[in-house]
Amino acid sequence: PEMSYRPAVCALFIGLMGFAGTAAASPELAQKKTCMACHTVDKKVLGPGFKEVAAKYAGDKTAADKLATKILKGGSGVWGNAAMPPMAATVTEAEAKQLSTWILGLK
Fold it and tell me: What is the pLDDT of residue 82?
């Protein structure tokens, strides 16, 4: 009986490690995908700071999908006059979701 739990525990641990690795990689992904040319974590540059974005969408269950879409398609008018260009040419849908999840997790 004791041995039967080991594969499940190992799978859970490996899964959690993968999730943590994904979350930890997001600042590097944001840098690699040139997000940091217009954004920082803590303050507005050309676009809003990521913590400001997280605060604005706190409690919105659909925020991760909304932000991923905005990353891919671009947008304007939410944070002032500066338009965010579409990033779909350089950011995949999976990367956009990873970035939006990371941004929303910032405090």
Answer: 87
Neighbouring CB atoms inside 10 A of 52's CB total 18
Summary mean pLDDT of the chain: 83
pLDDT of 60 reads 96
Would you say the pTM of this structure is higher than 0.85? no
44: phi then psi, degrees, rounded to nearest 5:
-70, 135
State the Cα angle at 9 between 7 and 12, rounded to 5°.
Answer: 105
Long-range contacts of 45-52 (CB under 8 A, 24+ apart): 46/82, 47/79, 47/82, 47/84, 48/79, 50/103, 50/106, 51/106, 51/107
Q: What is the pLDDT of residue 25?
A: 65
Looking at residue 61, the DSSP 8-state letter turns out to be: T
Contacts of 44 (CB under 8 A, 6+ apart): 52, 79
What are the residues facing 44 on neighbouring strands?
A: 39
Q: Which pLDDT value is given to residue 21? A: 42
